[in-house]
Design a protein that fits this description.
about 325 residues, alpha+beta, twelve-stranded mixed β-sheet, four-stranded antiparallel β-sheet, about 25% strand
């Protein structure tokens, strides 16, 4: 038995140390964990910690020899139906990561009242004898499109660092009610969160106001149906909760079908009443070098709205590795 180190992943952000150990070493008792922390045998980034210490993605946790608990409890076999369902979402995969095209209405992680989510389905992507894949980031339950999954903790840490360092380009498409004026620019509007959990709301805040966080979104109008509805390209320059939904509302063009923001204006008659926000493209540094660019096709409800309005999205390009990336990636090809 030897000392090992494990990296905290993005999906473990802000988890308590004792809960982190419970996830990875379920046979280790709370008393034994407290004793190891008191003796300094368990450390985070080389420093002493307590069982209630909150962890940050990318941190290294020192694991001393743990007699009789080094082997985690055996994982149950994945649910066959959920495994088939999540496998159909894969639009790119290689030995390091996977990219999913998440449907609108499926939550990324669990919470009050949520009985089905991507995180619980990831066992269906675990190779036999391999690590359980891990979420790298999140998108809203009602938002469709690209979701990045790491195959190993090390890859998760690298990708999480890229997100924190803003070395990731995210592009969203949205259909909004109205037409922005000007038709392109940067929305520089601080945001503040009210409440907690699933009932929390995000509102536009005054600059310098307590609890207000800086938030910026680059936007451009790609097409419009007069002044009634517009197709926007949105690129978040910061990563606040519900940022795109609140920012578009703040300039008078709420996202079509938004169940939480925009009020009645977001629900004109004649269109499918579902959030028209889609995580279209992700451009990330690949853990093995170069960059990976992946694009997700429009979901069915947005395709229908595009047809109604005469918007032409064009072909969905195939995933690609660029600028020094190897050719070993197994992209699934274009999805139309």
């Amino acid at each position: 038995m030897t000392v090992t180190n494990r990296i905290v992943t993005e999906d473990e952000a802000d988890i308590r140390l004792d809960r982190w150990f419970r996830r990875h070493y379920p046979n280790l008792t709370q008393g034994a964990l407290q004793k190891l922390c008191r003796k300094g045998q368990i450390r985070v980034e080389g420093g002493r910690v307590q069982t209630n210490t909150r962890l940050i993605p990318g941190q290294s946790v020192r694991i001393p020899p743990l007699p009789d608990v080094d082997k985690p409890a055996p994982l149950p076999p994945p649910d066959p139906m959920l495994a088939r369902e999540i496998r159909k979402m894969v639009i790119y995969e290689d030995e390091h990561l996977l990219v999913l095209d998440k449907p609108s209405g499926l939550a990324t992680q669990g919470g009050p009242g949520i009985t089905k989510h991507v995180d619980m389905m990831l066992d269906g992507l675990r190779p036999e004898g391999g690590d359980r894949p891990r979420l790298v980031h999140r998108i809203d339950r009602d938002t469709s499109g690209i979701l990045l999954i790491a195959r190993t903790p090390g890859v998760a840490a690298k990708l999480a660092a890229a997100f924190r360092g803003r070395d990731v380009d995210k592009t969203y498409w949205a259909v909004v009610v109205g037409r922005p004026s000007p038709e392109s620019g940067i929305i520089d509007q601080p945001l503040a969160k009210i409440g907690a959990g699933g009932a929390a709301l995000v509102i536009a805040a005054e600059r310098g106001e307590e609890d207000a966080a800086s938030a910026k979104t680059d936007y451009a109008t790609l097409d419009a149906a007069g002044k009634k509805l517009s197709w926007l390209k949105l690129s978040p320059l910061t990563g606040r909760t519900h940022q795109l939904r609140v920012h578009t509302e703040s300039i008078g063009t709420p996202i079509l079908g938004d169940p939480r923001y925009g009020g009645k204006a977001a629900h004109p008659e004649g269109f499918i009443d579902r959030l028209h926000l889609h995580a279209r493209q992700l451009d990330i540094p690949h853990p093995a070098g170069g960059r990976l660019i992946v694009t997700a096709p429009l979901p069915p409800h947005m395709r229908e709205t595009f047809r109604t309005l005469g918007f032409v999205p064009g072909e969905t390009p195939a995933p690609k590795r660029v600028r020094g990336g190897s050719s070993s990636a197994k992209g699934r090809g274009p999805a139309k």
